[in-house]
Structures are given as structure tokens and as C-alpha cells.
Write a structure and sequence with these properties.
The protein has about 300 residues and is of the alpha/beta class. It is built from ten helices and 13 strands. A nine-stranded mixed sheet has the order 5-4-1-8-9-10-11-12-13, with helices on both faces. The longest helix is centred in the last third of the chain and has 16 residues.
């Protein structure tokens, strides 16, 4: 079973405006609601690709209840812990024809006793399971919470996938994550230098592999993706589809596609991951199965 963890999920409320005038009443010409958070996105795309998955995390209030209901309606199993106070955050996205502004909610506080129960839920994972840790850590939680999870589960045969950046990612490398997925900017930040060529990207990826990562998947936006697999082989694939209209969830979709395809080999996993990420980038929300397969088979 693939389990995803989303510690601070969100309800994205997107409002389309002809223009945004500060200090005045603005009226939208259209709205959409999306339920997300990086781990939630991974679960939703995995389910589209026919892979069973369980979403773990923390939710609160009426927005948390709505998020759980949406996931279950799509066929994603959920095992969230409900927080005693607050509500799952709402992110407001204001889009005009020329620009986009965001107001992201903070999210509810997490009491220590709830976190203890959450750790105990993870103890059920074992041989053959995969745990996906994705996204930032809320301020009310320990910054090293990902590392604590991996310490707790080390030695049980669980595959770890980590999609984070900076110190949060570097701290988990000694625990041999099965997959990490930095983008070019995140990889450059870890390397401490600009990465302009494939050779430079490969060199930086190998340094993370030396530090512990088994597979390093680097998303390169309009240039496609590069995979350094655990055997030391470099796989390179060009971008698929047309121009990106939405980058939210594209990286999460790539992780989902990779995991859905890895049993058929790393080359196929890279292509399916790239198809899933590119399909989402070309849509206002997460890609559906037909969107992904259309790019994969093109």
C-alpha cells in the first residue's frame, strides 16, 4: 500500500477577476474549489492511475470534513486524525488575466497528544509499504518531523519517498529514501550553485545519491526531467504537452506517475511521471487518467 502524509492540507478557493483593485469591492466572474496539499495530490493522481492509496494527515473543522468527503468520493482511502480546534486552512487564489495573487492560510495548531497518536498510526506500516512525505511542515510541529518518522520506521522494510526542499530534505538522506524529487531550483539550492547543463544537474544529483538517496528525480519544467536511478544510470526525457497554465500539483503528479510506473522499470516510470506532471501543468486542476495516458501515448 502507498500511504501519503499531508500535515497541513488545504482547500484552495480560486476566484477569477477582470481586475484586482485594492481597497475596493471586487466581484469575481468565476470560482473553483480544489482540495489539496502535496500528499493529497499524490493520492488523487495515484487513484486516477488505478493504484490503491491511503491518505494520512491532520484535518480540522468543516473544511477538513469536506476534504475527507471529497477524497472518499474519488476512491482514496483516508485515515486522517481530526484536530480538536480550528479548521483545515483555506488558500485564496485571486486570478486576473495578467497576474495571480495568493493568500495562504496558516492552518490549525497541533497538540502534542495528537502528534503522539499520529506517530502510532505509522507503526502499522511494514514490509512492502511505501510512505510519501511531501510538502512543508506547519509551524506548530517539530521542524524535524520527517526525520523522526523515518527513524521510527527504519528497519521495517518501508520505502520512503520525500518531496521537500532544503534542510528538510537533506536531513532524511541518511535514511536511504527510495525517491526524492527536487526541481532544478531546489537542487541548485542544495548544491550551492547554479545548474545550467545536464552534466551539472547530474553531478548535483549524484552528490545527493552519495548522501543516501536511492533514486533522484529532477523536474526541469519546460525542459522535461532527469532521473538518476539507484543503479547509477541517467535517464533523460523531454517535456510533454503544451505550455504550462498551472504549476500547482505538477510535481506531486510526477511523483504519483513515477510510483505508479516503477514496477515496469525506471525508464517507463520516468515517462509516466513526466506525462502525469505535464498533464496537470496543462490544466486548471489535477490531471485525470485520460489526460495522462494521452500524453504518454502521443
Amino acid at each position: 500500500m502507498i500511504y501519503t502524509v499531508t500535515l497541513n492540507p488545504a482547500v484552495d478557493y480560486v476566484m477569477h477577476l477582470p481586475a484586482l483593485v485594492e481597497g475596493a469591492t471586487n466581484r469575481s466572474v468565476g470560482e473553483e474549489i480544489y482540495f489539496g496539499g502535496k500528499g493529497v495530490n499524490v493520492s488523487l493522481v495515484l487513484r486516477e492511475l488505478g493504484v490503491e492509496t491511503t491518505a494520512l494527515g491532520l484535518v480540522a473543522g468543516f473544511t477538513g470534513a469536506a476534504l475527507e468527503q471529497h477524497l472518499r468520493a474519488t476512491g482514496v482511502r483516508t485515515d486522517f486524525l481530526r484536530l480538536p480546534e480550528g479548521f483545515t486552512r483555506i488558500n485564496v487564489k485571486l486570478k486576473t488575466p495578467t497576474e495571480e495573487s495568493e493568500i495562504n492560510g496558516k492552518g490549525p495548531a497541533v497538540p502534542p497528544e495528537v502528534l503522539k497518536v499520529f506517530y502510532e498510526k505509522l507503526d502499522r506500516l511494514g514490509e512492502g509499504d511505501t510512505l510519501v512525505l511531501a510538502g512543508s511542515v506547519p509551524g506548530s510541529l517539530p521542524f524535524d518531523i520527517y526525520e523522526r518518522m523515518l527513524v521510527r520506521l527504519s528497519g521495517r522494510g518501508v520505502r520512503f519517498v520525500v518531496d521537500a526542499e532544503g534542510a528538510l530534505l537533506r536531513s532524511v538522506l541518511p535514511y536511504r529514501p527510495f525517491l526524492i524529487k527536487p526541481n532544478r531550483a531546489e537542487l541548485a539550492g542544495l548544491a550551492g550553485r547554479a545548474l545550467c547543463t545536464d552534466a551539472e544537474i547530474e553531478e548535483a544529483a549524484r552528490s545527493l545519491q552519495t548522501a543516501g538517496a536511492r533514486n533522484v528525480l529532477v523536474s526541469l519544467g519546460g525542459e522535461g526531467a532527469l532521473l538518476l536511478d539507484e543503479d547509477g544510470t541517467v535517464h533523460r526525457a523531454p517535456a510533454m504537452g503544451g505550455p504550462a497554465v498551472n504549476t500547482v500539483g505538477a510535481g506531486d503528479s510526477m511523483v504519483a506517475g513515477f510510483l505508479a510506473g516503477v514496477e515496469r522499470g525506471y525508464g517507463y516510470a520516468l515517462r509516466l511521471g513526466l506525462a502525469a506532471g505535464s498533464a496537470t501543468a496543462g490544466l486548471p486542476g489535477l490531471a485525470k487518467r485520460a489526460d495522462i495516458l494521452r500524453l504518454l501515448e502521443a
